[in-house]
């Protein structure tokens, strides 16, 4: 197999599988912190049980995240040695900081949260939940800051032997690109967390058990889901894509399936890009909207893919579909939680509206797809670059690792992760099945 | 100069990993010997439970620090030892899965299975870490760019395997002393009894390994800076022997805290001594010539300084909150 493809497949598979678990931890941690602090401040027994229930599910996610995260930390060295040697002076740093600043925080206070309930004071126990959340969110920040630098490199200089040196850590960590991307990613994780709460609550209500707790879950999940679905779109998604418009116009064109540069460019709602004929097949357009979204003006010129050399194009189909899946799902999330919130206000009718509860339950996996699709846009859309404009993915490999070796380890990861995925689903569904009352 | 500081910080972080993850690896290795019933094994796993993840973070943090402080060494080491490194990663993952899952499948047959996996993968890991250290001390064949050009089988040379076996003994002792500290009842008594023959075995193996390192592979004598780093190594070896003896005296006098701390100091000094032997190389070559030194692998002064400040500051914060929380989780567990 082509070495570049083998390495990219391995990285894509291991990172996408790994990322399923951080979605769970980053998306659930704020809810756990909220319920733990609430139980501590108000003596709300039920909130304490709810916190303990979600902490157990968090812990399963965390363990799976650690197990699948260990190879990520080292894969830059094993499979992408040329990239690591050239750009390690910049990207090594946020990765090291992730370990030192966030993993210690998260794991030490998770130890307190899980093992220390009867050993430490209630205040320290509640504080631990907040610090676990902080650790999870910080870890997300360092990863996104690393990725954002690969999207839009800042604060560096290239020295004589071609290595990239860090000039300013502050520039890397405080870059505008990084912050909007980070907030967008975190809002995405919160949507997933909200839908997990709402979905599990809907399951309890539909099966007519733990009704008061089910109602609390649905209420919290729907309200948080509405807020965070809105925030993924505006301002975070909007700002993020305006950064892409500014710094990565080819990615924007691929996302939108825009082949020809157009004044007053239309927004493709659906359609299938064909890179041979260079057009969108069977499209439905919203006229002039793309120009408005990109530049705030209905008549602006948006550059299409044909304005650039084909060798600079990212894989158009994948970027386009991933983007449309993400945006389509985001719209559905907003609509469903919006209707849910209205029914909730209408004297709690939501708890009796079985079709919507069914919908909430079945939608539970979809935020995961939306999150993964979003990352696919970001990473696939950056191709052919590994560091935008500075280093190509094809130049980034370990020269001393053969394609066959990578295929072997890829197969190993596939097997191990398949088992891990089955076990993870079994354990999580079993905890949900046990319920809040019986499980704690 | 900044590279030297970076090397010291990195060596400190790796040593901290060995001392800390060392005790849970060691407990995993000796659990079948000290815990007979399912309940006793539960207690043994519970003894390390709250610390396991935090201990493993030292490896992640150490790997990150290597990446940030010496990117070239990170790149050539991990790609050069691709297959062995992947095996280490898979064992680490397997170990994490095993201990997590034993909690969730609370029946005898599953416990037997997961405990076997946990002990097996942990013991193999110790062996491989030891083999890796052995090869580092001995040097490996590298090409002009610092990439490994030997085979997997080459890495399994007698000297490296000897270091691997020594590592198993040393961490088994470390684990037994930790069990003595945290558990009471039968497992704790068995750990105390096991500690005595283990201690003798560690002492003998230590003398053999140290002797071989300095005679068969006289790296220290070949290096330009041999004078002071070799002196540091020699001094640390003497101190570490004193720590080893202290741990034995403390076992005899039934002072488990002192015994465990002495064992921590023993392992820590050993690792720092190993680092001092390597200095200034991160990856020495054998035969000499193509090794990657801390100066070859440095990412430039600005990068090094910011990375060091960020890492050291983060470690200080971490030590602060660890000092507050971890001792509270160290209470005795009844088995």
How much is the average pLDDT of chain A?
93
Distance between the termini of chain B: 51 Å
How many H/I helices of chain A? 14
Assembly type: heterodimer
What helical percentage do the residues of chain B reach?
over 70%
Tell me the structural class of chain A: mainly alpha
CATH fold description of chain B:
Formate dehydrogenase/DMSO reductase fold
Give me the side-by-side strand order of the main sheet of chain B: 1-2
Q: Indicate the low-confidence ranges of chain A by residue numbers.
A: none
- Average pLDDT of chain B: 88
CATH architecture of chain B: Up-down Bundle
Helical content class of chain A = over 70%
Strand fraction of chain B = under 5%
Radius of gyration of chain B: 20 Å
By DSSP, the count of extended strands of chain A is 8
- Largest interface: pair, residues per side: A-B, 68 and 61 residues
Shape of chain A: globular
Pairing-aware structural class of the strands and helices of chain B?
A: mainly alpha
Description:
The complex is a heterodimer of chains A (440) and B (335). In chain A, β1 and β2 form a beta hairpin. Chain A is mainly alpha-helical and 440 residues long. The mean pLDDT of chain A is 93. Chain A is 72% helix and 7% strand. Chain A is globular. Chain A has one domain. In chain A, α2 packs antiparallel against α3. Chain A has 14 helices and eight strands. Chain B has 335 residues and is mainly α. Chain B has one domain: Formate dehydrogenase/DMSO reductase domain (Formate dehydrogenase/DMSO reductase fold, Up-down Bundle). Chain B has twelve helices and two strands. Chain B is globular and about 55 Å long. In chain B, 56% of the residues are buried. Chains A and B meet through α2, α3, α4 and α13 of A and α2, α3, α4 and α12 of B.
